[in-house]
Amino acid sequence: MMNELLKKAVSLGIGITVTSKEKVEKYVDDLVKKGEVAPGESKELLARLLQRGDEEQAELKRFVKEQLHQVLAELRVATKEDVARLEARLAALEAKPAEAGSTGVAGTPDAPTM
């Protein structure tokens, strides 16, 4: 469920980027048609506006990522590092009975069966 929500958020961000670029290009074209911007200046203006949009998108992405990390921390969701640490610990614990040999614990090769 959380994964689907993240996918939708990313898709929305990509959609907004494409739509925004098209709108900025149309806006600059309209300014040129109205004579408010010289045709030679339109490319520079377009580049500046798109760069500003990219910067704002990067800032929004950083903010969303920060908020997501905060929510996940509050929910106490395990991180990749937490899972990796537990897997390593589990592997070490599973290896101990094999190293010790016969312990008589149920489930080991030398344990008595009933």
Properties at a glance:
114 residues, mainly alpha, 3 helices
Give the CA-CA distance, first to last residue. Answer: 45 Å
Low-confidence stretches: none
Number of helices: 3
Fraction of helical residues: over 70%
For the biggest sheet, the summary is: none
Question: How is this structure best described in words?
Answer:
The protein has 3 helices and no strands. With 114 residues, it is an all-alpha fold. The chain starts with a helix and ends in a 14-residue tail after the last helix. The protein has helices at residues 2-34, 39-74, 80-100. The protein is rod-shaped.
Write the layout of secondary structure elements.
Elements: H1 2-34, H2 39-74, H3 80-100
In short:
The chain has 114 residues and is an all-alpha fold. It has three helices and no strands.
